Amino acid sequence: xxxxxxxxxxxxxxxxxxxxxxxxxxxxxxxxxxxxxxxxxxxxxxxxxxxxxxxxxxxxxxxxxxxxxxxxxxxxxxxxxxxxxxxxxxxxxxxxxxxxxxxxxxxxxxxxxxxxxxxxxxxxxxxxxxxxxxxxxxxxxxxxxxxxxxxxxxxxxxxxxxxxxxxxxxxxxxxxxxxxxxxxxxxxxxxxxxx
Length: 195
Fold this sequence. Notes:
8 helices; globular; Rossmann fold; alpha/beta; 6-stranded parallel beta sheet
């Protein structure tokens, strides 16, 4: 049996952004079978499409399955894990970088949170069952930056602690861990997968 890692990028992104290719390379060199796909319509992401895409990509989740998400990819993974937990299954580890937990805000709050980007409102207004999600997530690590311009880091840290009780790593000055922030390597993510 081989460890399988799935790297899920975020909104307006792609598999070649920032530190994602670096992590793929590092895991492959350690013998992981790594899939880092282009997600469907990253400029207009639809929750059901992304969940179904991940489900088809992963196939049967098991103790050799590792999920890594960045930004909206974290929410996609969490929503997928809710479906996995609903049928009593789980993965080995989940690593969430610069993500938010979908708590189910009002549509007005979601619109404010997303800067009025209508395609993102459902992602922030439709909550998930934290119990099912936590059961499915395996060992979970959340990586946040203290300088993320898109995430209220203290709020998300508290929300993740309440909903998933993961290991939380706060990294100094890495913004949203994307191209704009020139983050081409992310040792904290590699360590969270292989530790």
